[in-house]
C-alpha cells in the first residue's frame, strides 16, 4: 500500500519515481507557478511535472530553487512538444527546457504526443535515448501513446520507455493500455486524474466519499494509486494541494475499487491521441 507522499515506484531501469506529484498544466508563468511549486514542496511533494508547451518551465525552476529542498530529493519531469519532434530538434528542445528550468539534469523527459508521423517520433525517441545514455536525464518515456504507438516505437527502440503518461480517470480507465504497459514494464501515469473537475458531483463517488469521510477528489486520487497508476493532480491553491495529498491514511475496499472501475465510458476531457497533431492538452 502506498502510504506516504514520499513513497516511490521503481521504474524498469531502477530509478525511483514518486507515486504522487504536482502537475502544472495551465498554471500561469510567473508568481502563480512559483508559489504553487513552493507550496507543494513545502507540504511534502517531491515530484513536479511540467512541459515545454505549458510555457512555465522558468517559474517551475524558480519555485524549485526557492523551495530550499535539495535537487537530489526532487523528481522533475518535462516534455518535448510536437513542433520540436525529430532528432536534432528534440536535443535542442531538451537543452532549452533545462536552461529555462535552471537545472543540470531532468529526472524524466517525455515525448508529449505521438502525432501522426511514426518515423518522426522514432527519431525523437533516438534523441531521448542519447540524452539518457549521456546522463542528462535519469529516465525517458512517452505521453499519450496508445498500444499501437508503443508497438511501433518498440520495433526500433534500443531502450524501452520507462513511463507512459496518459489521460486517466474513472471515465477513462484505459484497461487495454494498462495491461499492455504492465506486461511491458512501462509505468502508467495519469494526467487530468480528476477529469478537470467533471467528476466531483458524481453520485457513486459521492457515496463512496461519505463512507470514508473523504472528498470525491481524494477518493479518485486514492483509486489511481491503488490501480498502480502514478498521478499528478494540478492545483494552485495551497489548501487544495494539501487536501489532494491527504490520501495515505485509508484504503479503498476491493468492492469500492470495482464500483469506480465500472464508471468507465471511454470518455475523454482532453484530445484524442489518434487525431491530435499540435501538442496542446
TrEMBL record:
InterPro entries: AKR, AKR5G, Aldo/ket_reductase_CS, NAD(P)_OxRdtase_dom_sf, NADP_OxRdtase_dom
Stated family: Belongs to the aldo/keto reductase family.
Name by which UniProt lists this protein: 2,5-didehydrogluconate reductase (2-dehydro-L-gulonate-forming)
Matching CDD domains: AKR_AKR5G1-3 (cd19157)
Keyword Oxidoreductase carried by entry: yes
Pfam families linked: Aldo_ket_red
EC numbers on record: 1.1.1.346
Root EC class: oxidoreductase
Organism field: Bacillus sonorensis
Keywords on record: NADP, Oxidoreductase
GO MF, one example: oxidoreductase activity
Residue span(s) of domain NADP-dependent oxidoreductase: 31-264
Amino acid at each position: 500500500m502506498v502510504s506516504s507522499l514520499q513513497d516511490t515506484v521503481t521504474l524498469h531501469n531502477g530509478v525511483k519515481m514518486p507515486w504522487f506529484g504536482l502537475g502544472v498544466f495551465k498554471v500561469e508563468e510567473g508568481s502563480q507557478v512559483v508559489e504553487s511549486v513552493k507550496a507543494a514542496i513545502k507540504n511534502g511533494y517531491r515530484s513536479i511535472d511540467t512541459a515545454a508547451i505549458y510555457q512555465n518551465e522558468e517559474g517551475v525552476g524558480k519555485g524549485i530553487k526557492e523551495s530550499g529542498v535539495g535537487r537530489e530529493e526532487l523528481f522533475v519531469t518535462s516534455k518535448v512538444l510536437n513542433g520540436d519532434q525529430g532528432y536534432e530538434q528534440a536535443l535542442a528542445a531538451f537543452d532549452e527546457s533545462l536552461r529555462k528550468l535552471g537545472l543540470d539534469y531532468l529526472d524524466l523527459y517525455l515525448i508529449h504526443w505521438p502525432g501522426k508521423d511514426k518515423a518522426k517520433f522514432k527519431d525523437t525517441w533516438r534523441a531521448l535515448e542519447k540524452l539518457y545514455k549521456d546522463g542528462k536525464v535519469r529516465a525517458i518515456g512517452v505521453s499519450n501513446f496508445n498500444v499501437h504507438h508503443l508497438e511501433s516505437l518498440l520495433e526500433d527502440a534500443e531502450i524501452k520507455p520507462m513511463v507512459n503518461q496518459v489521460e486517466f480517470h474513472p471515465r477513462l480507465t484505459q484497461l487495454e493500455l494498462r495491461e499492455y504497459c504492465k506486461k511491458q514494464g512501462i509505468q502508467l501515469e495519469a494526467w487530468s486524474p480528476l477529469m478537470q473537475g467533471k467528476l466531483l458531483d458524481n453520485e457513486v463517488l459521492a457515496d463512496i466519499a461519505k463512507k470514508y469521510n473523504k472528498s470525491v477528489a481524494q477518493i479518485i486520487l486514492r483509486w489511481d494509486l491503488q490501480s498502480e497508476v502514478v498521478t499528478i493532480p494540478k492545483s494552485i491553491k495551497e489548501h487544495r494541494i494539501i487536501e489532494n495529498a491527504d490520501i495515505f491514511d485509508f484504503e479503498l475496499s476491493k468492492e469500492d475499487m470495482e464500483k469506480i472501475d465500472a464508471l468507465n465510458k471511454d470518455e475523454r476531457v482532453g484530445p484524442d491521441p489518434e487525431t491530435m497533431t499540435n501538442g496542446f492538452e
